[in-house]
Amino acid sequence: MQRPALSAVAELLKPITWFPPMWAFGCGVVASGLPADGRWPVIVAGVLLAGPFVCATSQAVNDWFDRHVDAINEPQRPIPSGRMPGHWGLYIAVLWTLLSLLLAWQLGFAGFVAAGVGLLLAWAYSAPPLRLKRNGWWGNAACGLCYEGLAWITGAAVMAMGQWPDGRSLALALLYSLGAHGIMTLNDFKSITGDRQMGIRSLPVMLGAPRAAQVASLVMALPQVIVIALLVSWGQGGHALAIAGLLAVQALMMRRFIAEPLKRALWYSGAGVPLYVSGMLVSAFALRGVVA
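Above: the chain sequence. Below: its structure as C-alpha cells.
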C-alpha cells in the first residue's frame, strides 16, 4: 500500500491553523485566576491537545470529506493532488481523533468532556449525515465553538483540577465563540465557486459577498461590545477601554473589508483577527482581576 510522505501528512494537519485554539486555551488558563506553579505539565499537554491534536484532527476530517470541493477550489491540497493516496486522509483523521481523546483523558473530567464535544463538532461539521458546513450559519457556529469557546473552557478546567469554570469565564468563552462565527465566514470568501457547485451554502454563497461581509463584521463586533459592557459591570474599566480601542481599529478595517469583500477577506483575516484575539487575552486578564 502506498503511503503518504511525512510532508503531506504535515500539510494535511495544517499547523498554521493551530494557533487560534492554542491561544484560546491560554486565555482560559489566564482567566482561571489560578497560579501556574506545578501545573506546567498539564498546561503544556492542554496546549498540545488544543492545537496539534483536536485542531489538527478537525483539519484532517475536513480535508477528507471536502476532497471533491477542494479538487475545484484548491487542487494542490494533499488529497486532491494525490500526495495523500487512497484512504490515508480518513485513516489519519480517525487516528488523530483517538490520540486526542487519549490525551484529553489525562486532563480531568471537564477537560475530557470539552475536548470530546470539540471532536464531535469537528466530525459533525464535515462528515455526513450532518455535514454542518453545508449551511454557513450552523457550520460556522460549530467551528467557532470548537476553536475558541471549548478551548478556553478546557484551559480554565485544567487549571481548576478538572472542575468547570465559573459563569463569568463561560460567558466570555461563549461570546468570543460567537464572534468567531464571523472569522469562519472570512475563510469562505475564497471558496465561493466550488462551494456553489457542490451545494455548500456558505454565507457568501447564500447572501452574496457584500451582505456576507456585513454580517461577518457585525457578528465579530457585537460580542466584543457585550464583553466591554460586562467588564465595566465587573469593575474592570481599564480592560474594557483597551478592548474598545482594539474594536475601534477593527471597525475602521471592517469598512475597507465591506467595501471590497472578495479582494480584502484574506487581508482582514490576517490583519483584523489578531486584534480580535488580542481582546480575548485582555478580557482573560480582566477576569483574573475579578477572581482575585
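The chain has one domain: 6-291.
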